[in-house]
Specification:
about 45% helix, elongated, 5-stranded antiparallel beta sheet, about 290 residues
Length: about 290
């Protein structure tokens, strides 16, 4: 499991809270059978920041119903339906009544190595009565119920086949969804990341790890966002600092700030390093550029 923050559902009439979970490692994967009353469980940005693992979690509802929110998507789930979440990003589960579920914890590479669509189907409902989800649900239920009775070799073969089925289901839904929704979410998150970094160009101690923590992004996801824009976070930050310095020098006359103070104002601690970087980008040293403008 991963850390979650739980709370009562205000609309629920049930008093008190009861829950149970039985987790077993079957065929190398953690499979849990859960039962609980109404509640809300949130994977908050703060919990994401302090987590090392970035596993996927598949939740299959066997009794009752529930909803799942991640990346501005909401999956409404009933008996036999399942959905995936990415523990490297915030999400919320909400259950209005008692429910039972099976939860499969999947190491990221185990699924992404099998399919290209995995990361595009978070909080997407896979229906037991429709589409390819109907092939996965009964196999996962059988693994939860009878997996402990299997010998290790058989269990591992069983889980490999289950993951292959799941990968096929993810690829079947992932293509259209990726084109429609995931890119919009990534564009929004990229804007947030750029705004955060741009507001801190002056800070020479700024690190990508700290940026990811404050944004609620894993370092891997932060790099993914900038990679989709054909750059890296570090390269983008470096170029923005130089562009900000260029703008300051362009508008400054002889009485303007010194080259050293401009360097400090955009996060360069070493004026010599700043001068070399500026010349490499604009073809003139900061001092010569300002003289030419003046």
């Amino acid at each position: 499991f991963v850390a979650m923050r739980t709370a009562a559902v205000p609309e629920s009439e049930q008093r008190g809270f009861a829950a149970s979970a039985v987790a077993r490692v079957t065929g190398g994967l953690s499979v849990s059978a859960m039962r609980a009353g109404p509640h809300e469980a949130a994977r908050t940005p703060g919990l994401v920041r302090h987590a090392a693992a970035e596993d996927f979690f598949l939740t299959l509802i066997t009794e009752g119903s529930g909803s799942l929110l991640q990346d501005d998507r909401i999956a409404e789930l009933g008996p036999g339906d399942f959905s995936l979440v990415d523990s490297a990003r915030p999400y919320v589960f909400r259950f209005q009544g008692p429910f039972r579920s099976v939860v499969l914890q999947i190491p990221r590479g185990t699924l992404t190595s099998r399919c290209t669509g995995a990361e595009h189907v978070m909080a997407v409902p896979f229906r037991a009565a429709r589409n390819v989800g109907g092939f996965v649900s009964p196999v996962l239920c059988a693994l939860a119920e009878r997996g402990p009775d299997l010998d290790e070799a058989t269990a591992r073969s069983f889980t490999r086949n289950l993951l292959d089925l799941l990968a096929t289901a993810c690829d079947a839904l992932g293509g259209p969804i990726a084109a429609e929704g995931s890119s919009a979410v990534h564009r929004r998150d990229l804007r947030r990341a750029k705004t955060y970094l741009a507001d801190r160009l002056h800070d020479p101690t700024l690190t990508l790890l700290a940026a990811g923590h404050d944004l609620g992004f894993s370092l891997r996801y932060l790099h993914q966002l900038f990679r989709e824009a054909d750059t890296t976070p570090r390269t983008w930050l470096y170029e923005q600092r130089l562009d900000r310095a260029h703008a300051l020098l362009r508008t400054a006359g002889h009485d303007g700030p010194t080259v050293g103070s401009v360097a400090l104002s955009v996060g360069f601690k070493d004026p010599s390093h700043f001068s070399r970087a500026f010349k490499a980008r604009y073809g003139a040293s900061p001092a010569d550029y300002r003289k030419g403008r003046a």
